[in-house]
Amino acid sequence: MSVITAAMPDGAANRSPLASPLASPLASPFNLDDDAAYRAWREWKLAHRARSAADLVVDIADPSRLSTAERRLLLQGIDRHGVAVYRTPAGGGGAADETALPSAVSALGAQLGLHRLDANWLADEDGLSRITVAEARDEGAPGEAAARGEFIPYTDRAIGWHTDGYYHPQQRRILGMILHCVRAARAGGETALVDHALAYIALRDRSPDLVRALAHPEAMTIPQRTDDNGVARAAQAGPVFSVVAGGGSSHLHMRYTARTRSIAWRDDAATRAAAALLTRLLEGELEGIARLTLAPGMGLVGHNVLHARSAFADDPAAPRLLLRARYLDCVDNPAAEAQWPTG
Question: Helix count (H) and strand count (E) of the chain?
Fold first, then answer.
């Protein structure tokens, strides 16, 4: 396991070349000029679309030691839905106490080809983030971690639709993720999930020009973030949709946030139309959205799919706690593309 803690490049280095990231020959279903491959892939994806959250769930005994059958079912779920929801026995399955859970989470990722952890500046030394409610500014915390409570994941507020690391440059895309529930909230904290491939299909079926607009390297810009020391993160422009090769095949990647005050869309008609349609789709028009509340011992593993969280109320004696691992790797499943026809 390696932990990536590279500093964010400056604004100039963040700029992507002005070429469509969907033009890769490695990803013919995502080539806007290859309709036959797209139709075959689209048919396969829609046929396997999740009808309920139950379609995503895979029972496993111990995340640190998957059986051959458990690994196969997880990979199958990730191929079909972009993500799988694993469920272990109460207590986390194989982890005697909470101190053993980080190792179990990392081991789960490694068994699925996820090795390069992307440790953000608020993560702990093992590269995992402990997602729990924090004070707005915890003066007792070391260094920059004192500011955890200023970021919405570390509050009890709702989080809108997003993919993780949407403020990262292309070379640091978050491709895989694990989110493991250690303790649930007393009430609320529901997770919403949807395969971003379904959003891509809905947009492309309406008009390939909408996808083309969102594949532009300057489609979505996240403004710079400042702190007491000046610019903490440079402005980051990039595409919403791109293609990445990894794990033995090619994958559709999505970079998105539903936030409005911390985002600037490219100012052209197609981009505005695509962004507006995305909002409507995620507000309820899109089929395949799954909603569930993670219980202790449950978690998400797979690609960096679209997800959201409802507000919650904590139990002061046992506040909500999730372990989050974010990876620069794709889930390793070389047989993925063999499961759908290429036309």
Answer: 7, 21
